[in-house]
TrEMBL record, chain A:
Name of the protein described by the UniProt record: Histidine kinase
Transmembrane segments: 45-78, 90-112, 132-154
Keywords: Membrane, Transmembrane, Transmembrane helix
Biased composition (Low complexity): 248-260, 279-292
InterPro entries on file: HATPase_C_sf
Keyword Ribonucleoprotein: no
Keyword Membrane: yes
Region (Disordered): 248-292
From TrEMBL, chain B:
Alphabetized UniProt keyword annotations: Membrane, Transmembrane, Transmembrane helix
Keyword check for Transmembrane: yes
Annotated transmembrane regions: 33-53
Annotated source species: Bifidobacterium felsineum
Protein's name in the database: Uncharacterized protein
Length: 445, 193
């Protein structure tokens, strides 16, 4: 505890070493002159004493001290006594610290005050003038100006250094942001491409394990499916670990609360009770752009999602409404397809097949692609996902999939919300069909 | 409604913080202003009181210009000076300007220590006008003379001469320095014999 004030004092001294140095030099010069030629008149003694006090306080209260010194310098001109310390040392110090700490008009005002005051004795031809002639006064005026400009130049230098530091910090932040965006894209790509497929493999293996049963005749087959399930879950864990590593720099930023909220919502929607039913592949609702590769991409994603869910025994519908706009950005459509894959993976990972139906509607408009997905939420007590009760072999929610998609969609200018209301899990995403100019330019380049 | 309720605390917090800053600044400003006014009043009172105190050597220039003599009052009562320099001592006694000079000369002898005191007073007088007396020494460090050098101010050489003369007179250095030199020389002669 005792070391803290000492450390603070040392830090303050390091930060203000130049103030301390020039104040010490001025104080030493003033005190030496005082000891050699002490002030004779009492008023001169008073003003010289005030000047010394102001010099001592100048590192701590520079502006007030500077003006007190200037007042004493001017006041001493009216006391016809040239004994005592030379007031010029203190005057140079005061002009320098006012030039450093105050605005330019104030510093110029201080310079003019001292200069004009020192010119009065020259004009009146009194013996206490700095110089007997105006030519001689030019040297002193030059010295006053140099002292003020010296203080100003130090301040400008400090401001320049500060601006450079800010620019460097901004550049560093921009670089971190770019790296983070790249990592997010990588994580999202890994998650979308590998995580869904592995979940599908693991769930298929689990389904087969449940179907085979525990009899001795299918022991070898059971071991094979168990191996497939374990390997898929192991690789899935590794992929989630890699995704976590890629997202690590973002753990301290403001998107974290959203991620945790998203995870919470995901967990709350786990194990919904769904009914087994057939889910037909939706027909294309677009006529003009049905042959475009964009439409094919989305159709392919929808078919793949539907096939996976149907194969695993989930029931529900995935359908489209409206026509895909002709000028729809590739990024928007790719993100819509990827989000559909994530929704499918979430359904397979977190829900059981005998609870209800999912419903996913993709609506196209001129300005945006909207995706709305709902499914019933299971009763909290009904937590058993596997018939054999082997929770270690079940899929565990990672919780970063929707978070990554939310960030991607936000970066495209859209939004993604997921809530659990009235026993239903509701996901809504709006992806702008046309992106902003920077994105378009970047894509064009 | 939710939006309005969600916005109000933010606005109020911002508003409160702004008001807090303003009130803090006002308090700080008020406190500093009070301190500054108190200090200024204190300094003005101190200046007024100090200006009532005597200002030694302030009349040197005017006395030099009108050649007025401000020697102390001479009376029939004076010390009984003896020795070979009794007439010089009597002349000096009648010309002295300061109580210090009279207290030194009261015993008829000006010692080296006493001359240092007088020389200090002489230098104080000179320093008011930006001048200082400097002893000139030879190669062996023996004092062979004295000169007065300007250190500050803008006096002409004519003004400087007048001020030096007046300071010598008003500090009694003019009378006591030759007397001390004469007595010192006599003492040296006696010791050499």
């Amino acid at each position: 505890m005792n070391g803290k004030p000492a450390a603070q004092a040392a830090q303050w001294m390091r930060a203000h070493w130049f103030r301390l140095a020039i104040a010490t030099f001025t104080l030493a010069a003033t005190l030496v002159e005082w000891s050699v030629i002490p002030p004779i008149y009492p008023l001169n003694f008073l003003f010289s004493g005030l000047s010394v006090i102001a010099i001592v306080l100048s590192p701590f209260i520079p502006r007030i001290s500077g003006w007190v010194i200037i007042v004493t310098v001017v006041a001493r001109l009216f006391v016809l006594d040239l004994s005592g310390p030379n007031p010029l040392w203190a005057a140079y110090l005061a002009l320098a610290i006012i030039g450093y700490d105050s605005a330019i008009p104030v510093a110029v005002g201080a310079l003019l005050t001292v200069t004009l005051a020192e010119c009065v004795p020259v004009a009146l031809n009194t013996f206490n003038a700095l110089s007997a002639t105006w030519i001689g006064m030019v040297n002193y005026i030059g010295m006053f100006t140099l002292a003020t400009m010296g203080g100003m130049s130090f301040r400008w230098r400090k401001q320049r250094d500060k601006i450079r530091e800010q620019a460097l910090a901004l550049e560093r932040k921009q670089w971190q942001l770019d790296t983070l965006q790249r990592n997010t894209r990588l994580a999202s790509r890994i998650h979308d491409s590998a995580s869904g497929g592995l979940s599908y493999i693991a769930l298929t293996a689990q389904r087969e394990l449940r179907r085979i049963g525990d009899d001795e005749a299918h022991c070898a087959e059971r071991q094979d499916w168990q191996f497939v399930n374990d390997q898929a879950l192991s690789v899935l864990d590794e992929i989630h670990h890699v995704i976590d590593l890629l997202e690590q720099p973002q753990s301290s930023d403001q998107s974290q609360p959203n991620d945790s909220a998203d995870s919470k919502v995901q967990e709350s929607s786990a194990n919904p009770v769904m009914k087994r039913a057939e889910s037909p592949v939706p027909e294309s609702s677009s006529s003009s752009s049905a042959t475009s590769w964009q439409w094919n991409t989305l159709q392919s994603a929808m078919r793949e999602a539907n096939a996976k869910l149907t194969h695993l025994g989930f029931t529900g519908t995935i359908e489209t409404r409206g026509n895909l706009p002709d000028d729809c950005a590739d990024e928007a459509l790719t993100e819509a397809a990827n989000l559909l894959g994530e929704i499918t993976a979430n359904i397979t990972r977190h829900m059981s097949t005998d609870a209800g139906e999912y419903c996913c509607v993709i609506t196209f408009s001129k300005s945006a692609i909207e995706i709305m997905e709902t499914n019933p939420i299971a009763i909290p007590d009904n937590t058993a996902q596997n018939d054999d009760g082997n929770s270690a072999g079940a899929l565990k929610p990672h919780g970063s999939g929707l978070s990554m998609h939310r960030r991607m969609i936000r970066s495209l200018g859209g939004e993604l919300n997921a809530t659990a209301e009235d026993g239903d899990w509701i996901l809504y995403a709006r992806i702008p069909a046309q992106l902003g100019s920077p994105k378009s330019e970047r894509r064009a380049s | 409604m939710t939006g309005i309720q969600g916005g109000n605390p933010s606005y109020e917090r911002h508003h409160h913080s702004w008001r807090g800053i303003v009130s803090c600044f006002n308090r700080w400003h008020h406190r500093n202003l009070t301190v500054a006014i108190t200090l200024a009043i204190g300094i003005i009172i101190a200046v007024l009181l100090v200006s009532l105190l005597p200002q030694p050597w302030s009349g040197v220039v005017s006395n030099a210009s009108n050649d007025s003599s401000r020697a102390m009052l001479t009376t029939s009562e004076h010390p009984e000076f003896t020795g070979p320099h009794k007439y010089e001592a009597l002349t000096a006694w009648n010309s002295l300007h300061t109580e210090l000079g009279r207290s030194i000369l009261e015993d008829g002898v000006v010692t080296t220590g006493e001359l240092v005191k007088v020389r200090k007073a002489y230098n104080e007088c000179l320093s008011v006008y930006g001048l200082q007396a400097k002893t000139i020494t030879d190669g062996n460090g023996e004092a062979i003379g004295e000169s007065v050098v300007p250190i500050r101010g803008s006096m002409s050489s004519q003004q400087q001469s007048a001020v030096i003369d007046q300071c010598r007179t008003e500090s009694d250095y003019r009378w006591l320095e030759p007397l001390a030199n004469a007595q010192s020389a006599e003492q040296s002669t006696k010791e050499s014999r």
